[in-house]
Design brief:
- By secondary structure, this protein is an alpha/beta fold.
- The protein has four helices and three strands.
Length: about 100
């Protein structure tokens, strides 16, 4: 279990029990099969208290985002060592377009 409060168990349970509607199944017959992708905002180092790592280890591609440089560096190292298709982006989202000092 990678998540702090076992959230990943609920995520995995939901996805394992997800049943697409008849229309979604029909529509899916005519679409290219795509690899699932997830977005993790506030990913930290990608492993500590991660709600996404269980899905990544199950083969999901991911875009993970964190504003701190050390977390981004560590996430890139961790995912590279796992040989996973994960893009790590160093950015944050705020109310204004501006630069801020971020204390790690």
């Amino acid at each position: 279990m990678h998540s702090q409060y076992e959230e990943e168990a609920h995520i995995i349970d939901y996805l394992n029990n997800y049943k697409p509607s008849l229309w979604q199944r029909f529509k899916g017959l005519f679409e290219k099969k795509r690899q699932p992708i997830l977005l993790d905002i506030g990913a930290n180092d990608g492993t500590t208290h991660s709600n996404s790592l269980a899905l990544i280890l199950r083969g999901w591609d991911a875009l993970v985002v964190d504003p701190t440089i050390m977390a981004v560096v560590n996430a890139r190292i961790n995912y590279q060592e796992m040989r996973r298709n994960v893009t790590v982006a160093p950015c944050a989202i705020g109310a204004a377009n501006e630069n801020k000092t971020f204390w790690e």
